[in-house]
Structure formats: C-alpha cells, structure tokens
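[[Sequence with tokens]]
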Amino acid sequence: MKIRTSILLINLNTLEFTKKCVGDLLTQTLPFNLTIIDQNSNEIGTWDFYKNLTNNFLNKNYVGTINHLKIENSGYNKPINQIWNEFVLNSNTEFICLLNNDVRISPNFIETSISVMDREPSVGFVNHVTNNLNYSEWYDSLNYVVMETPYRQGWDPFFRKTNFNEIPNNLKFYYGDDYIYSKLYSSGYKGAYILNSPMIHYLSSTTPEKGGVNGGNRDKENFNNLKLPIKDLSFNENLSKWSPEFYKINKKNTNILKINNTEYDMSSPSGLEFKNKYITSFGDEPHPQVDINWFHIDGFHLELRSPTEHEFDVQIYDNDGLIYETKLKNNMYSKLNRKYFNGIRYVVSYNNKILKEETISFENKRVLIAFDSSSLGDTISWVPYCEEFKKKHNCEVVVSTFKNFLFEESYPNIKFVKPSSVVNNIHGMFKIGWFYDNNLEPEYPAAIPLQKAITNILGLPFQEIQSNVFFKPKSRPIQEKYICIATNSTAGCKLWNYPNGWVTLAHYLIDKGYKVINISQDGDKVNGVENLKDDSMLNTMNTIHHSEFVIGLSSGLSWLSWGMGKHVVMISNFTESDHEFTTNCTRITNPNVCNGCWNNPMFKFDKGDWYWCPEHKGTERQFECHKSITPDMVINEIKNLIN
C-alpha cells in the first residue's frame, strides 16, 4: 500500500501525553510515516520510551500502522516553526500532519483526512472537531463540512505537501500555523472540519517552554509585519472547544434504531440491491434455485446448495459494511476467519439479481458462550453479559465457565456447563477471553474496560453491569465489627508496594475499633491482622459478606466482593480508572506518576515476569504507580466509609 501521510510529533518533558498520542496512532486504519522530535527532554523515562518504541518497530510489531519511524533529539528547545519547515521539506509523502502531542485521536483520523482531501480539490487543509461533547463519538460514515469563511485550528493541521509555503525565519515558536492557513486561503483554498473522527486537545499542556511571553509578542509583531492579505483568523467555537468536554472517544453505532427497548437494523440497501429485490423486468430468465444453511460457530459459516451448476456471487456484511465476498457453486461453503460477532447479513446473487438475502438471527436457537479464562475476576466480570445476549436475541444460552457454582442460582435462565462439555444443536458459539488477535476481538483487549472484552466479542453495546454472585450466608464468623483486606495478587505490578503500607493502614483501622481480616490466600503476615485459617471459597465469601467493606487490589477478590454487593476500596494505579468496575467502589490512584501501563497498547503484560514494569523495571521508579500511594491517601478516602 502506498504511504500517503507523514506525521510529526514534538515532545518536551510531556512524556505521558506523547505516550497516549502514540498509542492512538497505533490504532489507525491506514499506515503512515512517523517522526518524533524531542526538544532535549530531561524527564525520566523519555528515552526508555523511545528505545522501546524503536525496538517494537524493528521487530515489525507495528506492521500496518507505522511504515517508517524516525526519532531525533534536537539538542535544545529548537524553534517549532523551524522544525516544521525542515520536516515538511524532507518528507516524501503526499500529505503532512503537524500533530500536537497533547491530543487524543480516533482510529479513523488519517483515513477521514485523506478522504476529504481526495473528494474536495478546493479544500487546502482539514481539521477535526475537538473537545465538543456534541461530537464525542467516531464512526465510519464520512461526515464533514467545508467552511466558507476563514478560520484557524493549530493542533492538527493536515494538508498537501505541494501546497506548503515555508514559514519565515523570524517566526520562531508562534504563528506558524496562522501563516500556513493564511497562505492557503490566499491561494483560493478552503478549510474543512471533519465531524466523524473527533479529537481531544489538552490546551497548552505541551507549550510551557515555547519561548515565553516575550517570544510570543515578537512572533506576533513579526507576523503582523508580513501584511498577509488574510491574517485575521478566528477559532470556530461552534465546532471545536478550547477545553475538553469529554475524555474518551468511543465508537458510535450508526445503524441501530431503538424503540421501546427493541433494536432495529436501519442499514439501507444500495440502489442495485433495491432494484434487484423489488423490480422484475419482463423477459428475464428464471432465477436459479438456491438454498443457504448457516451457523456462527468459531466464525460465520455459510453453505450453499443448488440443483444447478451455476456460480453465485456471495457477499457478507456486518454492521459496518461489506467484509467479504466470494463466488460459490453447489455444495461449496465459505467461512470467515473473524470469530467475534458484529451482526451478519449475507446476499446471494446471480447475474446481478439478488436471490437470497438474510440478516442472521439467533432467535429461538441455542448459543454456547465459552469462557477461555479461568480467572476469578474475568469470570465474574463477564457473566452478566451472557444474560444480555440472551435478552437481545431471544435465544437459549449455554455458558461454560470454571466457576459455575457462583452463578447457577443467580442466573436461572442460563444453563451452565463445565469446560469442554459437549453441547449439541447449537447455531452459535463464541469464545471469550483476551487473545491479542484482530480476528478474535475488534479492539486491543488490555486497552479497554475488562467487561468490554465480552461485549466486543458478542456484539453488545457496552455499559457497566453489576455482576450477581450467588451466596447463601452462614453465621457471622466474628462478632466484632471488622474490615477485610486483600493484600496478595497474581503479579508484582498489582501489589500495593508502599513500604509498610498495609501495616500503617491496619493500625489505623484497629485504632478506630475494627478488627482487620486478611482474606488473601497465603496472605501477608501483618501485625495485628488476622489471616483466615479456612481460606476456602465459601468461607472467604462468608467473611466478605459480614464485613463492613473490603480494601483490595485489582484482583479477583475485589471482583468477588463487588459481585456480592460489598463496597470495595480498590488500590490500583497500574490500570486506567475505568478498566475495573466503577460503581460501589472507592478508587485510590495517583495520576501524578507513571500509571496505566496495563492499558497501554504499546505494552503487553508478561505473566511469566513477576517484576513486569514495562518502563521502569530495574530502576528506582519500578512500581512507582503503587509505591507513590501513601497510607494517608487511602485513609483520607475511607474516612467517610468509617464515619
């Protein structure tokens, strides 16, 4: 594929912004060339990040996204407009994007930009609606508006290289984008706003060292002295906002209409489809007979039967459009490599005449949902969506988990079976887990909320749903009031690594009149804290049930407590705040240090490495996400629960 776009990022001691921007670039639907210019940053971790990025590129982990990667240290706080000039002149692609690093972009950012430029020869540059809550979701159908009056937006200019005019040397840090826009307007070009690929811009977050107020005033004076014919460019506050009104860009489903809790697929047929479906001409030859059998087991499978030897055109669509087409004869079949479900509609044609068309339905059919993970947290988080699938499709659902006893009573409308059980007469089968495979899941699994992993695979809209874990309480194990803590987990990065953090917290709770019970298996020996002598699942659940609340980590015991309706205080800074549950939860984080590596698509967790810390392993900053959370931070958050 021809690479048509070169993108420039500039970083100066704003590593966390750059990481997230690069993470968004790695989700783009079209490949690009990427250049990162670092302004001699002294922020710890910067060059480790660049080294990791380079190694992943050299190991071909970015095939399909980053075609060419260049990372360069400018050696000083080099004038940005000079960097822009050099970058554009040295680029060899059709399009240029001068992207601020303090932005979040949607996966179709590049694709929509190129599409508008290809469609609109009168458009000299494009921008994307920014920070506007009315445009907070991205979708595939191209939507844009060509602006009739001049405007400016400085954090995402996207333009043709051939239309670039070199920025004068006396403009150092400011007014470079104004100059680019003004020259394009003077040449008769217009600007366009793209509406279906919105973005977020954290205004001025990366410009504290641009040259200061005096430098800005000098650039303004020099810009005015240029006496350009069009220079009074205003910001369009109807489409873009200066400050963010939302902080996450989700994908919008544009084809579903919901009326009285019933969803209808409003996808429109093409003109040819309409003609062939509803219009018959006199003299047409009889249509050959064709029968179709389908199932969606480990991917969509379509079988064709016909008493003729004709060859038929077969097209398969999902909710986003055409995904596969082929030609089939009698007794032939086609099967998609893609395993997850996003709606399926097939069309079978002969000589441009549609013979059979169907949007598949699981209504009154049997579907098996098999959990690939035996993890307690994964299982508890995913089960409620099996019932949502049953409700949506009005079908019989059979679920295979490693923890059936937790759900058989609380989800009576679902049949639970042991893993590897034979389930007969099914029309659908979906495997649930984290696979890091685009054919098995539509999004990188670690970068999304844990519960969204199953909604992505089952084709359900995502919203957090409280799990319902079944438990029949027994007598109270401890007569005094007590609080449960869970100090252990399955990886070093999950632990609360503040020195003596649990000891200090436990002593505070004991001083307040509570007993403290550690419910972790083989729990740490904490002075004054009782460990469970019987750490069986049922006794642990009974202890959780009678407690005041639970203080834990991002672990299965926290999910178990939440599924039982118990309030959870979660100490977790290595995941994003929406990765676990957000209701009935007090979350303890520290956003001022390195955090969220678990959800960064640049890093993949190595479960064989207990000391996994992708950016700071082996340094003083290892596990700083949790070492920086002090007992006082936890105590301040739980005071209202105690009082």
The chain has four domains: 5-251, 256-359, 366-458, 482-642. The mean pLDDT is 90. The domain at 256-359 is CATH 2.60.40 (Immunoglobulin-like).
